[in-house]
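The authors assume throughout that readers already know how a fold can be written as discrete tokens. For illustration, here is how one protein appears when written out as sequence plus structure tokens.
>
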Amino acid sequence: MNILIRPARILGAICIALLAPGVGHALDTSRPDVQVFVARMVSEHGFSEEESLQILGQAEIQPRIIEAMDRPAEKVKPWYEYRKIFITEKRIAAGVEFWDTHRELLERVSAETGVPPQIIVGILGVETFYGRITGSYRVLDALATIAFEYPPRSKFFTRELEQFLLLSREQGLDPLSATGSYAGAMGGPQFISSSYRAYAADGDGDGRIDLWQSWPDVVASVANYFKAHKWQTGERVVTRANGSVPQTALSQGLRLDQTPSALAAAGVDFDCSGDTGDQAMLFELEQESGPEYWVGFKNFYVITRYNRSNMYAMAVHQLGHEIAARVNDVAQPG
């Protein structure tokens, strides 16, 4: 058997491997767009050129990240399939366990911010299964890949890369080892870099905000995010509309472009009792048996500020509701 491989074949195999999907390659720091980015880090934020190039030169462009950006679950799955990912017995049971373990923390943070525990546990359950799934991509790789190799979101993620380097400096993070999702979201609450800097809170009072290891920091940060986005304590989130609705009454995107009274006047049948404020949205979710319609209020809109998706917000709400029902049922005598 001839085990010798000609050099030309070796070179060809290497080229094929480099071009294969999922195989990363180092970011070319001589590119004009990278040079512009480095210049801004130097001029606006006081980074040295050498420091910036040293960090960016170790970023790996990951084709798998671009593939994931093109197929987020919120855009490729109908509601009845999307819901099955998150509203499961395992995730509900894990949420109950998390609530029991961190009851004092959840109650304290809820009392301080007005954000109910079920919303906090709903977020953590959907985002990371209570810290079990926080992402294995290096944040540097994720942000560099999208910033420099994915034109549809390049502008936004270039800013996020900038925010990540600032965050690393402020919080003492190692920019070469921090891990997260394919979009660069980090820790238990999956905060992107700008949200980390703007809304993360020091829940344990140690002078540092650690969203990977400190549950007090994680819980306080999620609650602070909702408080900053004007969560309305004690108000409803969403209610089901009965039967069909006039298609002209459906909201245009994630907008509070309706009022409860206007929806009722248009013939939308829903429970409009109680104080629901003067803002609402009407949206459709696809079930296996056909569409169903929901009226979301200001608090529902606030959940969509965490992730711009009606399905995401509904998953958070329903998961939190199921967990709270289980916790309250266990807490009742008998």
